[in-house]
Structure formats: structure tokens, C-alpha cells
Description:
By secondary structure, this protein is an alpha/beta fold. It is 36% helix and 21% strand. The chain has 14 helices and 24 strands. The strands form 6 sheets. The chain has a 7-stranded mixed beta sheet, sandwiched between helices. The chain has a 7-stranded mixed beta sheet with strand order 15-16-17-14-13-19-20, with helices on both faces. The termini are far apart. Homotetramer.
Amino acid sequence: MNLNFLSQLKLEHENLGIAIGNQWQRGNGPKIKSTSPVNGNTIGEVQLATEEQYHQVVDQARKDFLEWRNIPAPKRGEIVRQIGEAFRQNKEALGHLVSYEMGKSLQEGLGEVQEMIDIADFAVGLSRQLHGLTMHSERPQHRMYEQYHPLGVVGIISAFNFPVAVWSWNAFLAWVCGDVCIWKPSEKTPLSAIACQKIVQEVLQANHAPAAVSCLVVGDASVGKAMANDKHVPLVSATGSTKMGKSVGAAVGARLGKSLLELGGNNAIIITPEADLEMSIIGALFGAVGTCGQRCTSTRRLIVHESIIETVAEKLKNAYAQLKIGNPLDTENHVGPLIDKEAVNNYLNAIAKAKEEGAEVIIDGKVLEGERYSSGCYVQPAIFKVENEYKIVQEETFAPILYLISYNSLEEAIAKQNDVPQGLSSAIMTLNMREAEQFLSTNGSDCGIANVNIGTSGAEIGGAFGGEKETGGGRESGSDAWKIYMRRQTNTMNYGSNLPLAQGIEFNI
Length: 509
């Protein structure tokens, strides 16, 4: 296998995992290996940071923030524009690394880097639009307005399934807002983060920007816990499991900080009798097996009208039979591996629990064997006919398992769609305008994302991304998501010669 992309990205066998701009240092914690789920080979090693080293990074970030916030926002945007260009130049190499380290298909790896480029473009435009409002005062010769100021140090905790894109959603917006960022990536995909830091540092250095605008701390859960409890980090953006998010949210909330949480999804597509079935099958297929079911927006449940559920099941069986599973760097393959053996065990346990609760097997799951599956992380995408109330169906399993659920009325379908603890993404497949509008109405989907005639998986950077309930309530990327990275201030200007007081109170002086 050609691994030239590692040298192109200046990665080594032993990599430094702590960076303040271009100032790199070795962690004092235990050493970890980045192992590719593609073939089980070790890509590189990183020495983890300690809590003490994390706090040293925070100290420098706080100092450099004082300089960065005074650089005009359009000039900060220009630096982010150059960062976007640097990722354009490194798209092929970085896309290959993401695919090899995480296990997603090469097309998806390249697509993830493209998301970084796109959010850079969005952030550049945003750098000239960080505007507030003006309003009329009830007092004569007074003017009122509101403005937004940078928060300070933003902590970013990212997950393995999108090892680079979600960091960029946060960092690029935070940077144009005037914040500095400290990134704690997943220990399962540290090399992708190190590669990004190397690319960014060169741009910062060329522009003589403060070093700690971009910081990297590869550490274990103790570093994430330290960040969540750190009063010097006013905003912590965390992507991961609901369990992790509850811990981060509680810690940040206890110190009255701000948290942006992007957590679990249990996403459903409703297919009505008036749907375009060909379009529906394509949407369900990609949503269920893309990234081997390891997206927070992956389609987990397919809620199908009872009159067409057998037809849909048969069409899915035919579609799944055409899937090519194997090395994700081979563009002929549709599905790559799960991230590691732990994920494989979770997949097997979920299948066992579904069967225990009475699931009907449409396509059974199994671990694939043979030379091309030597890492032990390749599995068969599975489909089971179930009831929405099954305990395992109520949980999020990060694996290519699709649950087929029957419904009678659209109201019942929407109720089943909403009757899970998570609330990230949802979709309806229908050519009936009334059904579509009902799904998007107040009485429709309770998710942060609700789509018509496209699947649950994926999102455009122009819209705010995030969900409700146990998904955490956070919003990243587009729309006005930038406001979470800033503090809001209301200003009143008195340009008159009198000082009117509230409730008509007067002082004779």
C-alpha cells in the first residue's frame, strides 16, 4: 500500500502531540499507537499530554488571545482564507490519511477535507458580518445598540468519526470571531489532528500571527475533564457520546461556562406510500452504511408504511447484495471497516440484543473473515425488522445496523420517529406536499434537522448543524451559529445634557 501521504503531511513514526502554533513538545503521559482499521497496521505513535502540560498550553493561549482579539476581524478572515487554501493544496494527502486512520471510504475522506475548505470560505465572508442590532431608546437623546466581542479560549473536543471536519467547523468560526482554540482530538485518530496543526501553523507563522491561535493537546479523558472544569476556557465544544456530553455539560455548567454539545443520534427516515421508492432506497442505503454506520447522522431506523414494508425490505436486500466491502482507499468499495475491535463487539452485542427482543432477520450481521479483512474490523451491514419500543432500538449503536419499523398512519410514524431519547436528524420520503408539511410542522419531527426527500446523513455548512434532547442542543457551522463563540453586549449612549433616571426618580444636587 502506498503511504506517501504520510511524508507529504510531515508525519513520522513517533509524533509530538502538543503544539502551540509551531512550537511542538512531547507529552509526559503514556504512549499510544494510531492503528489503521484498514489492515491493523500501526501508522504512528504519540506520547499523550498530562493535565499539567494542558494547563501550560492554556496559559499561553490566554496571553496570545489578548493580541489576536485586537486584529481586525477581516484580517483574521484573511488568515483563515489562507488556511483554507492550504487545505486545498493538501486535500489529496489529508483525505487519504483520514480514510486510512479512521476507515471511511476515500471519497468520504476527501469530502471531509472539502468540508474544511467550505467552512473556511464561509468564515471568510462571516469575518465582515459580525454585526449586532440598533434599537430606539425610550429616553430622549439616547442611542442603544448591541455588539459581539470575542470570548477568549475555546476548547474543542472532537470524535473519531469526523477526525478533522468538526474541529474546523468550530475553529475557523472561532478564529474569525477573535477567539483562540485548543483542540483535544480523539485518541483513536490523533495523526489526522497533528497533520492539520502542521498545515495551520505554517499559515499562522507566515502571517506573524500569535502562536497560540491554534493549539493541539493529544491527551486522554483526563485532559478533556481538565478542559471541562477549566474556568479559563469560557466555551467547550464537545462532540461524542451522550454519556461524555452529559459529563462535559455538567462540569461546564457547574462553573457557569458555555458548552456546545453535539452528541448521539438515532435517526429515522419515514417512507410513505406516496414516496419515490428508488430515491428512498438510495437515501436509506447511504444513510445506513456510509462511514460503516459511524456517523452521528447515520440512518438507524426506517419507518415504513405497512402497505409497502415488504416491498421496501426486498428492495433493500437487493441493494445490500451489491455492496462492496473492503479497503476504503479502493474507490471501488462502498463500505470500509469499523474503527476498532471495541466497535465490532458493540455491533455484535447490539445484534444479539435485537434478536433477544424478537427482531426478525432481514439481513443478518457477522464479522467478515479472510485476507482482505485481516484487521478484524470489517462487518456485514445488517437489517432487522423490529418494534420501535425495543430497548436496543432506543439506543445509538455506531455500526451499520438498520432497523425496519412498520406504521399505519402518518401521525403514528411521526410519533415513532420522535419516541427516542435522541433528536439529531430525521427525514421523510414522500411526493405528497401535505405529508411533507406535516412532518416539518410544530407537530412533526422534533429533531434539529428535518429533511424531505433526502436522507438523514450529511449536512451543508450553510445551515446550523445540531440536535435536540440527548443530542445536546448545540449548533455548529452555518446560519448564526457564530454567536456562541462570542459574548453579547448591550450598549446605551447618552449624547444629551441630562441624565433621566428610571421610574422618574430625581436627585437635586
